[in-house]
Amino acid sequence: MTEYLIKNGFVFDPVLKLKGEKADVAIRDGKIVETTEVKKPKVIDASGMTVMAGGVEIHAHIAGPKVNSGRIFRPEDKLFNTVPVKKNMRAQGGFSIPTTYKTGYAYAQLGYTTAMEAAMPPLFARHVHEEMRDTPILDEGAYPVFGNNWFVLEYIKNREVENTAAYIAWLLRATKGYAVKSVNPGGTEAWGWGLNCLQVNDPVPYFDVTPDEITRGLIEANEYLGLPHSLHIHGNNLGNPGNYTTTLDTLKAASGQKAKNKFGRETILHHTHVQFHSYGGDKWANFESKAREIIDYINKHKNITADVGFVTLDETTTMTADGPFEYHLSQLNHLKWVNADVELETAAGVVPYVYSPDIFVCGVQWAIGLEIALLAKDPMRVFISTDHPNAGPFTRYPRILKWLMSAKAREEQIKAFKQSDKVVNSSEIAGIDRELDLYEVAAMTRAGPAKCLGLSHLYGSLKPGVDGDVAVYDFNPEKEHTPDQIEKAFSSVKYLFKRGEKIIDNHEIVSHGNKRTLWVDVKVNENLQVMRDIQEKFMKYYTVTLGNYEVHGRHFIPNPFALEVDATR
Q: Thinking of the domain 55-76+116-452, which architecture would CATH place it in?
């Protein structure tokens, strides 16, 4: 591979404790190396520019059946968002639900090189991997959903930790999945009975197990296996006034527990898109922010991480395995709705939504996301996300950075709200003058997510030995910038390298890269009881055979990279 030397840039790297010092970055054989190890490199002059590791997306809905359902039933999302074909690029389109090619290109143009699909229905894992294969440039992995899985519900109800862990290990291998995901634990299964679990102690019909028991059981099994990532949870009662108390009850499931893994992960619970779970009031009329209560708890408990789920004030498409929430949302906005049940495993819904600055609730949601990030004391544990596309498309990350880095930008947005006084009175955003710096941004978008995923040996830093993923932005941190200049600079990376290959040169994509799929190969002692249970349920309930269920790497995984976990007892 070509050697590169990126010279004289302002480097921001929380792992190396570099806070904008001028430094050189060398790449050889696809890895970051010491500058003395390159002999005849191609030199990139990064004078006056910002240099970071490639961005790491910890939570987005970018591949799989519900994403494809959204594309199909929202043709209007592509209507005014088709991009002309350019050299080295394929046709692309879509705004809130971009096509696979646009997904890869758009992330790359933002300086991202890795992205995780946040909710993979195991039954449709082959579909997920097909779409990830079609997405250029990005390294990707997917989280199979477990929180409403019949096997999990039965094992946890019977307090069978080893069986729960053995089943998780089998399913991760069978689906080529990366981490344990739980969406509205128990509530999505209850939806099959026309019910929901809004509180952590509500029993799931038939199974007679509670969300709290499911969450604690999945944490215990996750740590039993020592997986790279913690339990990744979308808690109960999403999107409802007063749900912050449910969120606190969910976070308490991690109380007093420590991580058990060899990947450098220190946390045991990751709560995703906490903006949607930080609501006060008991109805929409007195809706208010409870961001401080949630972030204060996270600040005090170092075994918890979170991503935010910022509202971007766009028309978008909501999609989630939280089936009852999507039905509820469709009854609120009276727009079209699609729902699906995935046998024995999960469900999903898709509903369009408009986060209008003219609507009071949308303004408070916008404020809550920013409050969480600005009140976070450890940027290595609170990460930037939009729960793409639920709170807005990931392509708005530069706009979010503008709001986080500029109090003036936030003031301008507050003034633009139709009910600005009411938004201010229902939140704390107007009283927060903190502005994030680029070191904190690097933590929230690179180093922190990589560590949380157990992938610090590959991503998130510019230390020698990690992958040669480097982003260079035409942004001089020593100069003053207007809010619009901040947004513009981070909307289009000047140079991007992926595993040592130049992907973007002078803002233009020049290569589709050498992407790979991340998955976890968990080795456990064969559990005959679990294998008998799997075979029995496939015979009785599934509409596919076991032989047609598993994802086989030779057919579906491009350049697979398995993180091996030996959890044998």
A: Alpha-Beta Barrel (3.20)
